[in-house]
């Protein structure tokens, strides 16, 4: 029997013959190959906010164009000159990245990520690292002075002036921009770090306060040090929230409304809260002691027909043992006024 006599069999034999004539190279598909990924960048020890740059390179050993895309950075301190890059087969492509060194002292690490059309290397990450070094610095250079209006002027915060270099450095007297604060520089014995003590010179009102002090140095690299002291505006008796907001009453409303007010004592003295009442009458208020002498919670329940009066102020009123806050009032308002 002659198999080639049948037309279908002859077609099969012809296809096999044609495939045998094709070389393996002629059957290959062109693909990009990412042969070289940018190495991590280590800047070593550098001064703060130093402008730097680095060149990242990608090598394509494939037979199709390599596309580097979706370049993203972990912070605005990294500024690549381009967000995409095409590298022809057998070539190397580069992108320049500007780097602004951060300000805080110590090690830092930022990253640049990218995607590619290489099926074996669909994404990658490049690390930028280094250590911010100050020859002279104040530790900390931003300090919080936790005082309240009745704390007096005895509270202070301490900062150290540290010289990391081998040569001695002279430190000048502090110069401040806020007369409500004063700073005192204490120079220790030889070989010890000077210390800066900052305190409030008078009781402070219930607001946030800042003081900036500058100190001249004999160092040409760091001619001046700057330190900032912050006092959060915290009253001796803190009330949260500052007002109780009720939804407007609607006809047929049957459900009561509830409210919660936190009362916190922020001084060393034990706080006593008493005589809680609501005006106008009708609401129920219960006092919960969360932390004796320190934290209390007022739970309020307003009946469905309760509505703040337009003739007299609606409020939660309570007494405390603090001499500056004998009576505290928390307004009760309707959210209808917001409309």
Write the SSE topology.
Blueprint: H1 7-21, H2 24-27, E1 34-36, E2 41-46, E3 51-60, E4 66-73, E5 78-80, E6 85-87, E7 92-100, E8 106-118, E9 121-132, E10 136-139, E11 142-144, E12 156-163, E13 175-176, E14 181-186, E15 195-200, E16 209-216, E17 224-231, E18 237-240, E19 244-246, E20 257-265, E21 273-279, E22 284-291, E23 295-302, E24 315-320, E25 327-334
Parallel strand pairs: 2-9, 11-17, 19-25
Antiparallel strand pairs: 1-3, 3-7, 4-6, 4-8, 5-7, 8-9, 10-12, 12-15, 13-16, 14-15, 16-17, 18-20, 20-23, 21-24, 22-23, 24-25
Indicate how many domains the architecture comprises: 3
Q: Name the shape in a single word.
A: flat
Strand content: over 45%
How is the CATH topology of the largest domain named? Immunoglobulin-like
Low-confidence stretches: none
Describe this structure in words.
The chain is mainly β and 339 residues long. It is built from 2 helices and 25 strands. It has helices at residues 7-21, 24-27, and strands at residues 34-36, 41-46, 51-60, 66-73, 78-80, 85-87, 92-100, 106-118, 121-132, 136-139, 142-144, 156-163, 175-176, 181-186, 195-200, 209-216, 224-231, 237-240, 244-246, 257-265, 273-279, 284-291, 295-302, 315-320, 327-334. A 5-stranded mixed sheet has the order 2-9-8-4-6, with no helix packed on it. Strands 1-3-7-5 form a 4-stranded antiparallel sheet, with no helix packed on it. Strands 10-12-15-14 form a 4-stranded antiparallel sheet, with no helix packed on it. The longest helix is centred in the N-terminal third of the chain and has 15 residues, at 7-21. The chain is flat and about 95 Å long. The mean pLDDT is 85.
């Amino acid at each position: 029997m002659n198999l080639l006599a049948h037309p279908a069999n002859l077609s099969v034999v012809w296809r096999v013959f044609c495939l045998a004539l094709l070389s393996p190279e002629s059957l290959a598909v062109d693909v990009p190959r990412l042969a070289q990924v940018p190495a991590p960048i280590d800047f070593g020890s550098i001064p703060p906010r130093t402008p730097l740059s680095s060149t990242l390179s990608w090598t394509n050993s494939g037979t199709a164009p390599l596309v580097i895309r979706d370049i993203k950075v972990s912070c605005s301190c990294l500024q690549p000159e381009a967000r995409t890059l095409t590298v022809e087969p057998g070539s190397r492509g580069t992108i320049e990245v500007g780097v602004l060194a951060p300000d805080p002292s110590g090690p830092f690490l930022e990253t640049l990520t990218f995607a590619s059309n290489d099926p074996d290397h669909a994404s990658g990450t490049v690390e930028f690292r280094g250590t911010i070094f100050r020859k002279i610095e104040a530790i900390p250079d931003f300090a919080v002075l936790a005082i309240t209006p009745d704390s007096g002027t005895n509270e202070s915060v301490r900062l150290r002036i540290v010289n990391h270099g081998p040569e001695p450095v002279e430190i000048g007297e502090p110069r401040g921009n806020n007369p409500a604060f004063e700073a005192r520089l204490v120079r220790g014995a030889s070989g010890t770090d000077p210390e800066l003590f900052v305190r409030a010179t008078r009781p402070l009102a219930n607001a946030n306060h800042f003081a900036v002090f500058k100190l001249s140095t004999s160092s040409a690299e760091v001619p001046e040090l700057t330190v900032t002291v912050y006092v959060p505006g915290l009253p001796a008796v803190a009330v949260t929230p500052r007002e109780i907001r009720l939804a407007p009453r609607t006809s047929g409303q049957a459900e009561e409304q509830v409210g919660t007010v936190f009362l916190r004592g922020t001084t060393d003295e034990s706080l006593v809260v008493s005589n809680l009442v609501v005006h106008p009458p009708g609401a129920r208020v219960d006092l919960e002691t969360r932390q004796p002498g320190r934290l209390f919670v007022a739970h309020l329940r307003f009946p469905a027909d309760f509505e703040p009066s337009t003739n007299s102020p609606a409020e939660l009123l309570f007494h405390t043992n603090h001499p500056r806050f004998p009576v505290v009032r928390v307004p009760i308002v309707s959210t209808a006024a917001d409309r």
